[in-house]
Specification:
The chain contains 14 helices and 2 strands. By secondary structure, the chain is mainly alpha-helical.
Length: about 350
Amino acid sequence: MADPTLAEWFAFAVVVFAAFLLSLALNALLRPWFVRYALARPNARSSHSEPTPQGGGIAVVAATLLLAWAAVVAFPAAVQHQFVTFLTLTAAVLLLAVVGAVDDIRVLPALPRLVLQCLAAGAVLIALPADFHIVPQVPQWLERAGLFVGLVWMINLVNFMDGIDWMTVAEVVPIGAAIVLLGLTGAADLLPALLAAALLGAMLGFAPYNKPVAKLFLGDVGSLPIGLMLGWLLLMLAGNGHWAAALLLPLYYLADATITLLRRIVAGEPFWLAHRTHFYQRAGDRGFTVSQIVARVFVVNVVLAGLAVLTVMVPALSLSLIALIAGAALVGALLTVFSRQWRS
């Protein structure tokens, strides 16, 4: 792995800072419009008690894509082999942003929403290079089917987990920072690393508005496309042979959302309907404050990011397995804590 040059550090810093400023400014500019047209009113699933504007994801997605494409223009030779893939990803992200925006203003039925999510995920997978393979021992058609399910699930689980202030910030920032670091070391391709830098900056620009008690929510217009972008970033990481890192980085979100879904299916509940039975939501019902929940999730995600980077820097199968076991134990411990009554 090559040591990053001063120019590379500067380029990534510019992308992060510019995305931060653009997201911050767009949210300030658009918030009055969100107050007027996109208020999220409290319901049975909500963790807030007052009507709060949603739609901040518009600024996050716009800042991310604009800065990522600016980077593509700045480094055309380095990203040329991924241009078609990234163009398709951009179109799919915009499609999900539109779907989310419509759903934020007037609720979409579950089936057409899922169909459009599948269309976006399918397009991204079709645009991958023909020789893209994560596990060579598995037939490619079977691997692509699994990746399709995983990508659709990633789109949805970010939406499911975006239920309290700063939760998605606590997830995206460590993942984005880890992929940027891996890009600087050459372990991640330049284009995914630049997209991660843009997403990192854009989420930091959104964070002041989403600070508890939030003045602005992401909305589905943000959570759905962010889920797709995170899924693609993890896919690119796994495609470079870093499968353990790709599993570790989103492990808390994967565990909370997947266990909750399976638990609801086993209980015979209508799992396709909105609910508030995720571990982090139940923690709020058991006495944890929003800040206490998010702080714990953020710390766990930082540790997971550290373990992920370690598996890339020291590419030994035994270390990857140990890191995965340690990450799973840490996430399991947090879920257990969230399942118990909090005593201050």
